[in-house]
């Protein structure tokens, strides 16, 4: 249980201690009252609702609830203000895991038979065009059935997800499968909420990316192939115009095999440069956005 202890200003310590005691000054009694009640009711909500009870190590129902209410998209927008030239961010979603396997450049993140072939390539660069070598790229997606690997009862290893590094000139490339639109899990309380609100639970097809490199703002984003019927009504509000991409069909058996696709034939090519924002630029944009919100709040 959270304990609240009043201290004099000289004794003020702006942290929560190891025993969960929150120290505060007396002039902020109103803040203390609000936070105490917020934490109390939030903890009760987690413990007493089916949203909290549905969560497991690989199913994050609370993230899903945050997504469908637009909270995830709002927090993303607040924490990642637009920087000219930088790749836009998007919602993380509830299906990221820490156990993605490392793959070499050109290798596949998907086991054979998981869907139509797709090759993803591009560069990781800074806003000034400088290549960024050795950037860590985490990527994950659905299979052709619209399921992430974590949604299968029999999951013996990560699939349709991987971790790779950009090359010396910032270049990257890997084999994947064409993602498909899918319904977010509807067998829990979040699905019931959407039904009650008369909303659909569909997401347009997309490929998740998380990219980081020293000195740059960590990027969490997703790429959305054009033409999907759900692009304008994404259930979790993740689509941004600049993240809608073109898939080019390559009908060349020889090239398909050269790129490592076992069955050859044709494949879809997704080309996209990932532009990371230097920490200094990102911090300046965040501070300006904070000041702008403050001005709007008092206008």
From TrEMBL:
Record GO terms (molecular function): catechol 1,2-dioxygenase activity; ferric iron binding
Keyword set, alphabetical order: Dioxygenase, Iron, Metal-binding, Oxidoreductase
Cofactor: Fe(3+)
Intradiol ring-cleavage dioxygenases domain ranges (all copies): 110-276
One annotated GO biological process: catechol-containing compound metabolic process
Domain of life: Eukaryota
InterPro entries for this protein: Catechol_dOase_N (IPR007535), Intradiol_dOase_C (IPR000627), Intradiol_dOase_core (IPR015889), Intradiol_RC_Dioxygenase (IPR050770)
Spans traversing the lipid bilayer: none
Record's keyword annotation contains Lipid metabolism: no
Domain (Catechol dioxygenase N-terminal) ranges: 49-85
Family under the similarity heading: Belongs to the intradiol ring-cleavage dioxygenase family.
Annotated protein name in UniProt: Hydroxyquinol 1,2-dioxygenase
Species for this entry: Hermanssonia centrifuga
């Amino acid at each position: 249980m959270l304990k609240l202890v009043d201290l004099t200003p000289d004794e003020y310590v702006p942290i929560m201690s190891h025993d969960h005691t929150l120290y505060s000054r007396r002039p902020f009694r109103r803040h203390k009252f609000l936070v105490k009640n917020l934490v109390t009711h939030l903890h009760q909500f987690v413990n007493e609702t089916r949203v909290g009870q549905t969560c497991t190590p690989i199913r994050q129902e609370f993230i899903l609830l945050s997504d469908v209410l637009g909270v995830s998209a709002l927090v993303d927008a607040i924490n990642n203000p637009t920087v000219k030239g930088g790749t836009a961010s998007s919602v993380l979603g509830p299906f990221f895991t820490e156990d993605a396997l490392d793959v070499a450049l050109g290798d596949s993140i998907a086991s054979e038979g998981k869907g139509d072939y797709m090759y993803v390539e591009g560069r990781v660069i800074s806003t000034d065009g400088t290549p960024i070598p050795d950037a860590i790229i985490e990527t994950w997606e659905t299979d052709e059935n619209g399921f992430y690997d974590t949604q299968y009862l029999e999951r013996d290893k990560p699939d349709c997800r991987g971790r790779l590094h950009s090359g010396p000139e910032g270049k990257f490339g890997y084999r994947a499968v064409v993602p498909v639109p899918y319904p977010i899990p509807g067998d829990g309380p979040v699905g019931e909420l959407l039904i009650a609100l008369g909303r659909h639970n569909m997401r347009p097809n997309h490929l998740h990316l998380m990219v980081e490199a020293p000195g740059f703002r960590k990027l969490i984003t997703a790429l959305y192939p054009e033409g999907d019927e759900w692009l304008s009504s994404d259930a979790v509000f993740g689509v941004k115009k600049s993240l809608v991409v073109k898939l080019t069909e390559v009908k060349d058996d020889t090239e398909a095999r050269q790129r490592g696709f076992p069955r050859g034939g044709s494949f879809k090519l997704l080309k996209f440069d990932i532009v990371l924002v230097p920490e200094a630029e990102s911090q300046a944009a965040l501070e300006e956005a904070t000041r702008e919100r403050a001005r709007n709040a008092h206008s």
